[in-house]
Design a protein that fits this description.
Blueprint: E1 5-6, E2 9-10, H1 24-43, E3 49-56, E4 62-71, E5 74-82, H2 91-105, E6 110-116, H3 121-126, E7 130-136, E8 143-150
Parallel strand pairs: 5-6
Antiparallel strand pairs: 1-2, 3-4, 4-5, 6-8, 7-8
Length: about 150
């Protein structure tokens, strides 16, 4: 029986896949752009915007920061971090309030974020975020917790 042929030649000629370390940020940006292009075409939403905010000390070192994006009526907080010595002073609350204000201004209806069970789930719950999903053993022995907060108009 003859071998099946693909348009590019025999199937057994596929190029080997190997992991390359070191160019991850460049590849991440490339892949994020390609996925956004696909998602925007599929949904008709071409309004993505990346945002960030920081609070810095007198020497311009970052004390706290937030990074995420808005797209298609949703806001996603990718990272929220407060220097350990600065926690419990309202900085994280202020950063999230700024994110929520920005999200409303962009027409977002919901803010989404994820945290680990050993990070800050109670913090988010105190601010009105509701746990929507759990992924157990991420990392092993802990969980990823996914939260949402539906925004009300001011």
């Amino acid at each position: 029986m003859p071998r099946k042929q693909s348009k590019t030649g025999p199937l057994h000629r596929r190029r080997a896949i190997g992991l390359r370390l070191g160019d991850a940020p460049e590849i991440e940006a490339f892949l994020a752009d390609r996925i956004y292009e696909f998602n925007a075409r599929a949904t008709g939403c071409f309004d993505a915007e990346v945002f960030s905010a920081t609070q810095r000390d007198e020497s311009d070192a970052i004390r706290a920061g937030v990074y995420g994006y808005t797209w298609c009526g949703c806001c996603y907080v990718s990272y929220l971090w407060v220097r350990e010595s600065e926690r419990e002073r309202g900085i994280g609350t202020a950063l999230l309030a700024a994110v929520e204000k920005h999200a409303r201004a962009r027409g977002c209806k919901v803010v989404l974020l994820a945290t680990h069970s050993f990070q800050a789930p109670r913090f988010y719950e105190r601010l009105g975020y509701v746990q929507e999903a759990v992924v157990r053993d991420h990392p092993v022995g802990h969980s990823s917790l996914h939260f949402a907060k539906h925004l009300k108009r001011p």
